């Protein structure tokens, strides 16, 4: 497995490699994301890109992962996977009743989500091109959880994973979660989310974005950061 501080070998400019061949067999989940019509900077132009990018938008519950994930999905015109959709019912019930998940509760969820991300990188049909990437909203609070996700790109030189960590203060986070009424994750869970959080310090594949500002500002910061990262691969 890739260590967080270790940069992999430069990508080999060859045909796309099927990433699913390089990871252990996992549950065969299908992605539920879809392509969006608008493209600010397209990853899936008419010719196959040499690199497929997995953008994992991370941070504690309520930090804005889904909001940012959808912005990225639209900008990159690639599938978007909402991590919450991959939690088991028991995990959701647990969180909904105010009990934090344990490491053991999270492994299968992370593995399912990782497999869904891998699946999303394959073309939808024999005649279509593979997407330039996939956006995944996933709290990935601890480094070891990010390491589980990193396996998606392990051994696949044409797949690159990035973590987009959404950073904000406890006060702003509490405010956002308190205003959100219909979600199973209530504000009494925020302390445990922050207690579990290991910010991605020194992890070369992680980008930290301050998301305390209004949505337009956050959107701009995220798009700028992603554009800058993509430029490294052009
Ligand atoms: N920059 C922002 N400023 C103000 N409110 C925001 C901002 N970004 C998101 N929100 C609001 O904060 C709430 C949480 O956002 P969102 O659902 O995107 O977070 P999340 O990290 O996906 O949450 P969860 O992981 O719990 O599903 C939503 O009500 C959303 O509209
Ligand atoms: O690891 C966890 O504790 C969970 O993934 C949570 O972070 C939620 O799923 C998510 O953020 C929805 O509120």
TrEMBL record:
Keywords, in A-Z order: ATP-binding, Kinase, Nucleotide-binding, Transferase
Nucleotide-binding found in the keyword field: yes
One Gene Ontology term of the molecular function aspect: ATP binding
Signal sequence range: none
Pathway assigned to this chain's UniProt record: Carbohydrate acid metabolism; D-gluconate degradation
GO cellular component: cytoplasm
SUPFAM superfamilies reported in the protein's UniProt record: P-loop containing nucleoside triphosphate hydrolases
TM region positions: none
EC code: 2.7.1.12
Chain segments carrying region Disordered: 1-45
UniProt biased composition (Polar residues): 32-45
UniProt xrefs under Pfam families: AAA_33
Catalysed reactions, semicolon-separated: D-gluconate + ATP = 6-phospho-D-gluconate + ADP + H(+)
InterPro entries with a match to the protein in the record: P-loop_NTPase, Therm_gnt_kin
Keyword check for Oxidoreductase: no
GO biological process: carbohydrate metabolic process
Enzymatic class: transferase
PANTHER family noted in UniProt: GLUCONOKINASE-RELATED
Similarity remark: Belongs to the gluconokinase GntK/GntV family.
Protein name per UniProt: Gluconokinase
Species whose genome carries this gene: Penicillium angulare
């Amino acid at each position: 497995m890739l260590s967080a501080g270790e940069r992999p070998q430069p990508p080999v400019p060859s045909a796309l490699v099927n990433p699913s061949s390089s990871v252990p067999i996992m549950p065969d989940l299908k992605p539920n994301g879809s392509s969006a019509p608008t493209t600010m900077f397209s990853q899936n132009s008419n010719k196959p890109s040499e690199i497929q990018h997995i953008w994992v938008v991370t941070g504690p519950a309520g930090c804005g992962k889904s909001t940012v994930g959808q912005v990225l999905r639209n900008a990159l015109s690639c599938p978007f996977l909402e991590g919450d959709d991959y939690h088991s019912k028991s995990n959701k019930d647990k969180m909904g009743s105010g009990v934090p998940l344990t490491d053991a509760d999270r492994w299968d969820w992370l593995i399912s989500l990782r497999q869904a991300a891998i699946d999303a990188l394959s073309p939808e049909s024999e005649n279509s091109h593979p997407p330039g990437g996939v956006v995944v909203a996933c709290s990935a609070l601890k480094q070891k959880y990010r390491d589980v996700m990193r396996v998606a790109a392990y051994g696949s030189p044409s797949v690159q994973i990035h973590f987009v960590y959404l950073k904000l203060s406890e006060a702003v986070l509490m405010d956002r979660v308190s205003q959100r009424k219909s979600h199973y994750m209530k504000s009494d869970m925020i302390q445990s989310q922050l207690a579990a959080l290991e910010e991605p310090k020194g992890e070369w594949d992680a980008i930290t974005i301050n998301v305390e500002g209004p949505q337009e500002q956050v959107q701009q910061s995220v798009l700028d950061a992603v554009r800058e990262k993509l430029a490294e691969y052009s």
